[in-house]
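My main concern about presentation is that the manuscript never shows what a single data entry looks like. Each protein is reduced to its one-letter sequence and a matching series of backbone shape codes. For the editor and my fellow referees, an illustration may be useful. For illustration, here is how one protein appears when written out as sequence plus structure tokens:
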Amino acid sequence: MKILFTKANMRINQFIMLSLLFVFSTHSTILMAEVGDNFTQGNFKFTVMSEKGDQGTVSVAAASDAISGTLNIPLFVRNKTVCYKVTSIADEAFFKCSKLTGNLVIPTGITRIGSLAFSNCNNLDGILILPKTLKVIDGYAFNECSSLSGTLTLPESLNFIGEGAFQNCSGLTDSLFIPRSVRHIGNLAFNGCCGLNGTLVISEGVESVGQYAFAGCSGLMGVRLPNTMTIVDNGLFSGCTGLTGTLVIPNSVKSIGYRAFSDCYNIQSVIMPKTECSIRYNSFDNCHELITKLLDFKGISSL
């Protein structure tokens, strides 16, 4: 009887151990999602970016391009036992989601808007509201969102505006203020934003502004450049026919690129840097009166 009792106990102990292993394994599987894992809820697809215990972060994208109406991106999302904070909008997240309409409100907590995230969402016909947590707007994020309207307010948290980020957002209006937190504005960033009809202010602290970044912004009436800029790059303000009055080039600028101010024929005068500044061929193309005046400036190395 003693042997039978011992064997029975062994079987019970084995069963308990196997049960515990199964529970532990299942529990671990629920909690331990890997970076890059995806899950879908409603109209959204989420990608795990980080996870620790019962908390984590995810990026968000459309589950399909059939998503329609006003976009309401959640602040948080729960999957199984983990609560994730939505911190970024994925590359191509809502690319060509042409059925999206109305205002576009990016929620607080988002730090990055990926490349091509809203590109060609040309039926978004309201205002764009960006959060105070935003640091990066990647390349072509809002490219061809031509129906977005009203004043664009860039948050003081923003560090980087990528190539073509707002290219051909022709419905944006009023003045544009680039905050001092921004260090880089990419090529073509605001190219073709012809609805901007006030003053462009690029704050002190902005170090580089890419080629043709504001080309074709024909409604701009004035521009203020920072003393942190060293180059006015190729085509930067080409076709900004609305610019009038006096153009002031900061003393920090050492070079003015090819066609930088071409066709800005309504500028009446220009104040050049006190130090030597190289002007590339055709920098002021079709600005005939300005070219005549520039020939009298000392310190110009080439024209």
Notes: The longest strand covers residues 44-52. The two ends are 109 Å apart (CA to CA).
